[in-house]
């Protein structure tokens, strides 16, 4: 390879020995409780997370921490599932440009950035032997005429 990028960091394209990109990590914990009734299941779930970004504030350097929580529920019938979840993400971000003051240390102002989102899904299940299920099985798993045991 002629002068390639084999030892470059993905985020700043500097060699591994010169990059300022830090390692990232993710911590996640959650729980789900299922309430089962005749013909229907209702899940209730919640979770917490903390993620460090592989690149920090462009102004201050270092890593940036994203923290948040999720909560969700749904309703699960035999062939129909509706699910909805809420997520909040927060991180502290620097404002403005770094000011150089040789006589005293000056802190850059920061603010907490919050992002809220709602995710919903609807799932409709089909019979295993139905026409639409047979079509998707053939599309993704091959034709029924193929014998898998051979």
Keywords:
150 residues, mainly beta, Aspartate Aminotransferase, domain 1, 5-stranded antiparallel sheet, 45% strand
Q: Determine the mean pLDDT.
A: 78
Structural class: mainly beta
User: Roughly what fraction of the amino acids lie in strands?
Assistant: over 45%
Can you list the strand order of the major beta sheet?
Answer: 1-2-3-4-5
CATH secondary-structure class: Alpha Beta
Approximate shape: flat
- What is the CATH topology assignment? Aspartate Aminotransferase, domain 1
Helix content: under 10%
Radius of gyration: 25 Å
What's the architecture, going by CATH?
Answer: Alpha-Beta Complex
Low-confidence segments: none
- H and E string: EEEEEH
The tally of helices reads: 1
Tally of DSSP β-strands:
5
Structural domain count: 1
Largest sheet, if any?
5 strands, antiparallel
| Intertermini distance | 44 Å
Describe this protein's structure:
The protein has 150 residues and is mainly β. It has a single domain (25-141), classed as Aspartate Aminotransferase, domain 1 (Alpha-Beta Complex), CATH 3.90.1150. Helices cover 7% and strands 45% of the residues. It is built from one helix and five strands; from the N terminus they run βββββα. It has one helix spanning 131-141; strands at residues 25-37, 40-52, 65-76, 80-94, 110-124. It has a five-stranded antiparallel β-sheet with strand order 1-2-3-4-5, with no helix packed on it. A hairpin with a 2-residue loop joins strand 1 (25-37) and strand 2 (40-52).
């Amino acid at each position: 390879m002629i002068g390639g990028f084999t030892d470059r960091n993905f985020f700043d394209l500097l060699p591994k020995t010169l990059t300022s990109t830090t390692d990232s990590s993710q911590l996640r914990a959650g729980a789900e409780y299922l309430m089962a009734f005749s013909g229907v299941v209702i899940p209730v779930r919640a979770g917490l997370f903390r993620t460090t970004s592989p690149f920090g504030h462009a102004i201050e350097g270092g890593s940036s921490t994203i923290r948040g929580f999720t909560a969700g529920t749904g309703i699960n019938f035999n062939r129909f599932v509706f699910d909805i979840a809420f997520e909040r993400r927060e991180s502290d971000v620097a404002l403005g440009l770094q000011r150089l003051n040789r006589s005293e240390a000056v802190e850059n102002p920061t603010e907490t950035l919050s992002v809220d989102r709602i995710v919903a899904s609807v799932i409709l299940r089909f019979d295993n032997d139905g026409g639409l299920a047979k079509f998707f099985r053939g599309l993704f798993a091959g034709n029924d005429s193929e014998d898998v045991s051979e």
